[in-house]
């Protein structure tokens, strides 16, 4: 873990072993009872979502460290609207195509210790981010949103999509020893060091399934967060149930061939090495990304 939760007490060093003194001003107040030290980056992949962005940004907490908008060559005013709503927004021009490609570019541009994935269609409530962050600072490596956990819900899924999600989730649970209640959902958060333990090598909507499988195979601690998915506010989704369901199934079948025990052993070695490096340097380890970044502006 790159940081942990402690009260900001004047005259006390909250982070033991840090070379630079951390004061109460370094903490970001989340509520009257909670403050966090780790900076939080929010990644929003968007293409022609100018009409939805006001709803998305309106719900984002003001204590967020940075917002990274990955623009998929929008033909509307997506970038201009984002900069008006959040003047410090970091805009990444996506070079490839697909949601997976957009997220990979966005992750590469993040500087926060915690990364949150949020869709740009207005279906996610940014106020839920505090629940994700709370799970991470309490010990989880990966906070996975679930529309079907107790307290979650969805207004946006058709019956066929619910059935497909349930079947694919059951397959992943059986094949990889997971205990997920939801599989294909894009509202997730994780410590940045998780990117050292998994390799993201897909470009489409199946990226969420790939992440869910590989964090389990890497031996990372996953906690599900009940989340409510609302209807898309404007426009039409690029998701296609049958086409993208088959892509998800191909990912599951491909991942089944990689021994889980071998990947878990590798994750342990990588995590121990990363923690040792942080202890020596007194700071976070730089994120390794093997896929080219988009252009940041």
Any overview of this molecule?
By secondary structure, this protein is of the alpha/beta class. 34% of the residues lie in helices and 16% in strands. It has helices spanning 53-58, 78-85, 99-109, 129-137, 159-176, 207-217, 241-255, 260-281; strands spanning 28-31, 34-36, 40-46, 66-71, 90-93, 114-117, 142-146, 153-154, 188-191, 222-226, 228-229, 295-296. It has an eight-stranded mixed sheet, sandwiched between helices. A two-stranded antiparallel ribbon has the order 1-2. It has a two-stranded parallel sheet with strand order 8-11. α5 (159-176) packs parallel to α7 and α6 (207-217) runs parallel beside α7 (241-255). The radius of gyration is 19 Å and the shape is globular. The chain starts with 27 loop residues before the first strand and ends with a strand. Residues 1-24 and 260-293 have low confidence and may be disordered.
Brief synopsis:
This protein has helices at 53-58, 78-85, 99-109, 129-137, 159-176, 207-217, 241-255, 260-281; strands at 28-31, 34-36, 40-46, 66-71, 90-93, 114-117, 142-146, 153-154, 188-191, 222-226, 228-229, 295-296. The protein has 297 residues and is an alpha/beta fold. Strand 3, helix 1 (53-58) and strand 4 form a beta-alpha-beta unit.
